[in-house]
Design brief:
Bound molecules: (6S)-5,6,7,8-tetrahydrofolate
Oligomer: single chain
Largest sheet: 6 strands, mixed
CATH class of one domain: Alpha Beta
CATH superfamily of one domain: Probable tRNA modification gtpase trme, domain 1
Shape: globular
Strand order of the largest sheet: 12-13-14-11-3-15
Order of helices and strands: HEEHEEHEEEEEHEEHEEEHEHHEEEEEE
Distance between the termini: 41 Å
């Protein structure tokens, strides 16, 4: 037996105490923080997200804040998506790429105003990356990780709960737009977003001392709809086709390979990092694409902790990057990062723990 030794290297979210009180059963590290991974009843947590409303500590989605005269310029230099039409109070899903066109993070960009932006990041260090690019380009911008921690309210009843707390105006808030609000003296940004396709909001808490207070306010307001704790749900997100950067991508994955081509504008200025490589990749045609893969058999497979080879006619053609027992399809489903030569409808074999499992490629999303 061993334990994780006490360390400041695994930071706690402002909602940590609240999740412990709720009976959190596991964590994994994400952005050098502890990310809750369950509350002991995966079945109930899944159906609550699909039919009701679920409350998630996603404080690990750290913000990288750009402030200053060149903040907008730097945001564009880092994102191969045209940001000229991004309005104040609007968010955009972007693929940050390196000079080779490899996706190094897939944050939501929030435009607070012309001189202030947040990248709400996935699990890689964009603080160092953006500081390095800003310094090399001589830009006038300050880059910090602010005291901001998202709390997600997800599910078909999320709107009722968030409206009960903040008012009916939230029902008019458009997808990925946000507004600054306060509740009981707690400052936050309220956005319509979240890593599920069941609808919902994210409350970007802007005072890390008030995490438990905010959790309790939403928890109590949600009791008529039977709100309960949850976390980003791997089953729902695979069924819905949502990408997990670092889980479904490797050190050579470009946006076109993982269905992010629609977030790449090839005519952004030439100083955007990676745009030259992306134009070249687009012209030559990317090597792989992302498809669904459905395994034969109706018994749940153990969860993934590694990629598995996908074979066709005995040759490796790709990897199954993530897989899960789909409670709606009652099949093991997953994502395939696979040669462009393979298409939906084709049969493949999955090499898993010494066995070969027959499988079929499908389109994404599943729902
Ligand atoms: N919310 C916030 N920050 C985040 C995430 C989040 N940071 C890390 C991670 N999640 C970033 N990755 C994603 C991936 C997908 C989506 C959002 C963040 C997403 N995608 C939709 C889709 O693919 O269908 C919609 C994208 C669009 O059309 O614009 O929502 O969840 N704060």
């Amino acid at each position: 037996m061993f334990e994780i030794s006490p360390t400041t290297r695994l930071r706690r979210s402002p909602f940590f105490e609240a999740t412990v009180k709720e009976g959190v059963t596991g964590f994994y590290p994400y952005n050098q923080m502890l990310m809750p991974t369950g509350f002991g009843d995966p079945e109930a947590e899944y159906w609550r997200l699909l039919n009701g409303v679920s409350l998630w500590d996603v404080g690990v989605e750290r913000q990288v804040e750009l402030t200053g005269r060149d903040a907008a310029r730097l945001a564009q230099i880092l994102s191969p998506r045209d940001l000229t039409k991004c309005a104040e109070g609007q968010g955009k899903y972007v693929a940050l790429c390196n000079h080779a066109g490899t996706v190094i993070n897939d944050p939501i960009l929030l435009k607070l105003d012309d001189r202030r932006f947040w990248f709400s990041i996935a699990d890689s260090n964009i603080l160092f990356w953006s500081r390095a690019i800003a310094a090399e380009r001589g830009l006038d911008v300050t880059i910090v990780e602010p005291d901001v921690s998202p709390l997600a309210v997800q599910g078909p009843k999320a709107e009722d709960v968030v409206a009960a707390v903040f008012g009916d105006w939230v029902r008019e808030l458009k997808y990925f737009w946000f507004r600054e609000v306060e509740i009981e003296g707690i400052p936050l940004m309220l956005a319509r977003s979240g890593w599920s396709k069941q609808g919902g909001f994210e409350l970007y808490l802007m005072d890390g001392t008030r995490g438990t207070d905010l959790w309790n306010i939403v928890r109590e307001a949600g009791s008529p709809w039977d709100i309960g704790p949850g976390n980003p749900n791997s089953c729902e997100r695979i069924e819905s086709g949502l990408l997990s950067w670092g889980g479904d991508t490797d050190d050579g994955t470009n946006p076109f390979e993982v269905r992010m081509g629609r977030y790449v504008d090839l005519d952004v200025p030439d100083d955007v990092v990676g745009i030259g490589a992306l134009r070249r990749i687009k012209a030559e045609g990317p090597a792989r694409h992302q498809l669904g893969i459905v395994l034969d058999g109706d018994a749940p497979q153990p969860s993934h902790a590694t990629w598995y080879d996908i074979l066709q006619n005995g040759r490796k053609v790709g990897d199954m990057t993530n897989g899960v027992w789909s409670r709606r399809l009652e099949r093991n489903i997953g994502f395939a990062l696979i040669s462009q030569a393979c298409s939906p409808g084709e049969s493949v074999e999955l090499a898993k723990d010494g066995n070969q499992i027959s499988a079929k490629l499908t389109d994404l999303p599943y729902f």
